[in-house]
Known about the structure:
Blueprint: E1 12-15, H1 18-27, E2 32-38, E3 44-51, E4 54-60, E5 71-75, H2 79-88, E6 92-99, E7 104-110, E8 116-122, E9 138-145, H3 149-157, H4 159-165, E10 172-178, E11 185-191, E12 197-208, E13 212-217, E14 223-232, E15 235-244, H5 247-274
Parallel strand pairs: 1-4, 5-8
Antiparallel strand pairs: 2-3, 3-4, 6-7, 7-8, 9-15, 10-11, 11-12, 12-13, 13-14, 14-15
Amino acid sequence: MRPDGFPQLVPYCFVERAHEFVRFLVEALGGAELQRSLRPDGAIANAMVAFDGVTIMVSEASAEFPAMPGSYYLYVADADAVTAKAIAAGAALVMAVGDMPYGERQGGVRDPFGNLWWISQRLASGPYAHDPTAESRVAATSRVLSAPPSTVWDAFRDPGKLARWWGPEGFTNEFESFDFRVGGDWKFVMRGPQGAAYPNHQRFVALDEARRFVTCHVNAPHYVLTVMLVPEGDGTRLDWRQEFESDDLFRRLAEFVRPANEQNLDRLEAVLSSGR
C-alpha cells in the first residue's frame, strides 16, 4: 500500500540549504510543493514536491544523513525555456540544449546543490526504440589492450596523451580547448601528413570513469562515438562504435574511416606501451 499520487519509487534528497532547494524545484523546474514540516531549529524535516505524478521528498542534510547529490531526468514541454530558468536560478550549464539522436531536445545543468538535471523535451512520438537501420551507418571495432581500464581511461582523459594518439597514422593534433566533463567542448586542429588542416569540434556526451566515453562530432561530418572499456584478464577490451548521421555519409567515408580507426587504436597501444 502507498498513498494516492505516490509511485512505488520516490526520490529522497538530503541537501544543504533545503529551503533554497525546494524553491529551486518549484520556481526553476516547475514543481508544486505539497507540504513542508520543520525541525525545532527551523530546518526542513520533510518537504514534498510533485512533478506530474512523481513526488520528490527533501530533508536538510545532517551529520547522520549528509548531502548526497544525485542525477535526475526531467521531461518538460520546452527544454530551452526550462534550462534557461534553471540557469537564471543559479544552475550551471553542463550540456547546451540540442537535438539528440534518440528523439529528444535536451540540455543539462548542475544545480547550486550539486545535483545534475537532464532537462528533456520529447520530440519523437511513441516509446524509445532501437533503430534497426542504425547498424548500416556504424563503423565498429574492438581491441584487447594489455593495460587495465584505469590506465586506458587516463589516455583519454589526459590531453597530452590523447594528442599523441588521436587520429590515423601520420596525423598530428593541436588542441585549442579540452573541457573534459559532460557537456564540455573539445576543439582541436588535426593535421594530415601533407600539412592539411582539419578543424574538429567534439562535445562530451557521457563520461563514466574507466568505463564509457561518448562524444558527438559537432561540425561535419556528424557522428556519435561511443567507446566502452571492459576488464578482460589483466587488460581491457575496448569496443569502438562510430555512428554516422546518415547511411549516405557513412558510405562516402567508410573506405577511409575503417582503416583510420584501426590505426587510431594502433597508436593508442603504442602510447600505453610507452608508459608515459
